[in-house]
Amino acid sequence: MLFKDQKVTFADVFVPESVGKTLKDRPYGPRNFEKYDLYLPKKQTDKMPILLDLQGGGLVRGRKSSEKLSPMLRLTEQGIAIATMNYCLISEKDYAFPKQVAEVRAVLIDLKKHAQEWGLDLNRLYLTGESSGAQLAVLTAATVSAGVKLGYADGLEDDVDQVPTIQKVIASYGPYEFDQFKEEFQQAGIQPKYKESGEPNSFEGLAVGGHQVTENPIGISQGNPANYFTKEMPALFAMAGTADQVVPFQQSVEMVKRYEALTGKQAKTYWLTGGHHGIADFDNEQVDQMKIAFLKA
After folding, report:
1. What pLDDT band is residue 132 in, cutting at 50, 70 and 90?
2. Strands 235-241 and 268-272
3. Does the bond joining 98 to the residue before it have cis omega, within 30 degrees of 0?
4. At CA 250, angle to CA 249 and CA 254, rounded to 5?
5. In this structure, is the dihedral angle defined by the CA atoms of residues 289, 76, 132 and 140, taken in order, positive or negative?
6. Alpha helices (runs of H) in 114-213, residue ranges in sequence order
7. Cβ count within 10 A of residue 113
8. 63 pLDDT exceeds 80?
9. Cα distances (Å, whole numbers) of residue 236 to 91, 134, 166, 222
10. 271 by DSSP, 3-state: which?
11. Is 83 in a helix, a strand, or coil?
């Protein structure tokens, strides 16, 4: 079965006792799905760090406050507020990418508006994402820090100069160069999980307008966050598994190489030997501690 046609259900996230208050379905745009949730820690200070989590799903599925949020929601134990949002999903009827970047900007601006009311510290604003959510997190941080307004959606308040400064990004096994999947899988000797990889009906093909990935160089270019890296790009923590059959491990490695070359900064990395795609191999105390150390550094 094609990736795009899989029937996947998402359980609601388990809310730990470290969460003191939840603000549900905050609107950030005019469409019914354009909402986000905010989890405020029970252990509150005058101003709390805020982390916006962007779920994965190949940009074709996913929703806020699903079970995928569990690893990040545990960070409320550290006094960190966690936000999670819905964003526009792509299909053969709506090639929406990269309007999701505009939606992320709109959520960040709304968080800025209510920062004082909710006790949020905009000097400690972080983005994180897994899989396609990692791409959106790095892409948003890169374009906003470069002053580039990538993506557009009607009715949003999403001006780049209104977005609060993003301080740090955690990116887990994201896709960054859609046209390199085939070559990188071959070089690694890995059989892709989805045989349509690189075709118009693959998730990466849909992201570039339903084309063969080699036929839309503009779409490929605008989806690659490395093309927007400047010295203003925030600190980066990237992780991926070497046995990933959905997104080549080399995607993260090459993104980090360009990050370090173009920003002059050293990224924090965690390359898991034998690690696969998805949160399972990264949902543990060791990874939690690395995230906490990175955010508190």
Report:
1. very high
2. parallel
3. yes
4. 135
5. negative
6. 115-118, 132-146, 181-188, 203-207
7. 12
8. yes
9. 30, 11, 11, 20
10. strand
11. strand
